[in-house]
Structures are given as structure tokens and as C-alpha cells.
Write a structure and sequence with these properties.
mainly alpha, 2 domains
Amino acid sequence: MSLFEVKTILAVLFVAAGLAAVASMMTLMGRSERRMSVPALKTIHRVAGYTFAVLLVVLGVMGLSYLSSAGDSLSVRGVLHWSLASMLVFVLFLKIVVVRWFKQFLKFAPVMGMIVITLALVVATLSAVFFVVTGGFGGAEPETDVAAVGPAEEADVSAEAGRGGRVFESSCSGCHYDDSAEMKVGPGLAGLFARDVIGVSGKPVTPGNVREQIVSPAGGMPSFKGFLTDEQLDDLLSYLETL
């Protein structure tokens, strides 16, 4: 499972928990007839709220790793994403402070809760639409015939490069073309090893430098350190050399 798939699953759970918290709150406050008891609704609201907060922390930590690697080259979408996410964190923190220690302002808690879930939905939708448009969710699984992987059609493509093609499909194809040098989200990688330098880092194109760009990237590319094994990295490099 790729990093993007893990983040997608966590994001879906995150939004679901937020919606459950808001739905239980609105049922408690806005309906005179309820199918569930008040204690049950309060329990749902509390559990969903805690789940939402925990998942926000997890996604935030994962996002900070990307933010640190992007540095000053963060994209416009990234800036917007982080601005909205920061607002979400601030409003949620303020809501928790009000509920815990400043109960005289409890009447504002529902409004803050609605702002939190609205921001969460906007942030999630922003990322989801982006990856759908750019193909980041992938498509059908590639064929297991290694000769059919990627643009190279030679029948003697190695098994290592074939496995690397599948790693590329699951982890890289959302941002890079393998059959073109044109920009997608990041640069197209066709003919990568025929180039003089890696565009972002300016380092010579060597297997070692390409590997370093994957695990400790320059520019706005997220790091895949810890998400791809050494074997997967070897396979991926073998595939990239065939492009």
C-alpha cells in the first residue's frame, strides 16, 4: 500500500468521524424526537470527536514531513491546503478550550464545530479533486507481464525493472509521467538517465542521486523514506533506467 493510499484511507475516516460528531450534535440540539437516547448521542459525539482529533494529529504529522521537504517551493495548492488546515486546527483547539475551561462561552461551541467540519470538508475535497484530476488515485492494476510495463516494449525487460514499473504505478504515477518529459505535477521522467542533471536538485543524474531525490528530496516532492523498502527502491531505479 502506497503512502497516498494510506493518507486517503485516513482522510476518509477523518471526514467520517467529523460528520458523525456534527450529526450527533445537530440531532441533540435540533430535534425534539430522536431515534436514539440522549446519552447514546452524547457518547457518539464524544467518541467521534476524539477520533476526529486523533486522526487530525496523525494527518498533521504526515503533512509536516511533506512540508519540511517542500521548503520554500511549496505549490499554491499546498499553501492553500496548509492555510485551511491551520485554521481548522486553531478553531478546533479554541472549541476544546471553551468546552473544557470557559463554559460561559458554550453557546459558541456548536458554531465552532460547524466551522471545523466545513474546513475539514474543504481541505479533503481540495486534495481529493486534485488527485482525481491528475490521476493520483491510479487506475486498473498493471498487467503482471513485465514486458508490458511502462513505455519500453522490449521482450527482455528484466524482472527487477518490471517490479519497478509496478512500484512506479502505485507510488509515482500520480505526479510523474513515465512516457513523457512534460510536467504533470512533477517533471516527466522519460529519458531521465539521458539527462545531465536532476532538475530540482541540480545534481548529476546518477542512480545514487536519483535514489537520494526519492528518499530525501529537494523541492516540493514528498519523501518516500520509510514507505518504500530498499528492494522497492532498487526495482524502481532499474525501471527508471529503462525509460
